[in-house]
Amino acid sequence: MKTVQIKATGFFEMLKLRDTPMWEIFSQMIDGEEKELIFLDDEEKVLFSYVLPDSLEKLNADREKFAQEYADKLSGMN
């Protein structure tokens, strides 16, 4: 599995500037091989990682799962 390191600050700033969802960028990175995306802070420390699946179908399943978990967390805060 290939590992891709991403500077989180720059990545999320790019998403804002382009007004592009993170999932759209992830979909463009799919090439039939799983990749471990490692998000780093400005000091090169690992913030989190995500295994980018090898297909768009699996990515969409991850996106739906993430959306549900995020909604659950938000509802728990109220």
Summarize the structure.
The chain has 78 residues and is an alpha+beta fold. The chain has helices at residues 8-18, 22-29, 56-77; strands at 2-7, 35-40, 46-52. Helices cover 53% and strands 24% of the residues.
Fold and architecture overview:
- The model has no long low-confidence stretch (mean pLDDT 94).
- The protein has one domain (2-77).
- The longest helix is centred in the C-terminal third of the chain and has 22 residues, at 56-77.
- A three-stranded mixed β-sheet has the order 1-2-3.
- It has helices spanning 8-18, 22-29, 56-77; strands at residues 2-7, 35-40, 46-52.
- The protein has 78 residues and is α+β, with helices and mostly antiparallel strands.
Give the helices and strands, then pairings.
Layout: E1 2-7, H1 8-18, H2 22-29, E2 35-40, E3 46-52, H3 56-77
Parallel strand pairs: 1-2
Antiparallel strand pairs: 2-3
How many structural domains can be distinguished in the coordinates? Answer: 1
The radius of gyration over CA amounts to 14 Å
Q: What is the CA-CA span between the terminal residues?
A: 40 Å
Largest beta sheet: strand ordering: 1-2-3
Q: Which regions contain 5 or more consecutive residues with pLDDT less than 50?
A: none
